[in-house]
Amino acid sequence: MHTSASKTKDTRSGIFNRWRLPVLGTLVTVMWLAPINQAQAAETGEQIFQSKCTACHTIGKGKLVGPDLAGVTTRREENWLSRQIKEPDRLLAENDPIALQLLQEANNVPMVPLGMSDAEVAAVIAYLKSTEQQENVDTGLPSQYMPSIFFGLLVLAGLTFAGLNLGTKKVDPR
What we know:
Blueprint: H1 4-52, H2 72-75, H3 78-86, H4 88-93, H5 97-105, H6 118-136, H7 146-166
């Protein structure tokens, strides 16, 4: 005879079994598409960088009016970098030491606010990060593929486990 506690347990395990694969499939799909979204942000960021930033900045080709931005996302915190891109005049007004040093290095030519949205600034930062990832990969598997490989192996293990559990049905040989 089933008690209410065992009925609750059976109901919970039944729900878990029915929703386990769809949830796992959704999770894998989202994780598989995440690098694509980052690549799209970097591509958009490259277009924004080309149209708004290349008059004063380069990446790995030396200083123009503003500093060369190779490696900038490893040298600066993302929050500061975002503010510098979006509101450089405010950082100078706040006497930010890094912004003041950059102003001095640029012969007192300040960076002007470009009127970029938060999404545009984030896309430019994603592009700058993508240029650094490309430079850091010399040999071996690029780090951007590791999440896909990890989740591919996770799915393979999950499918193997599911197959082993489903394959243990009792059959009456009569």
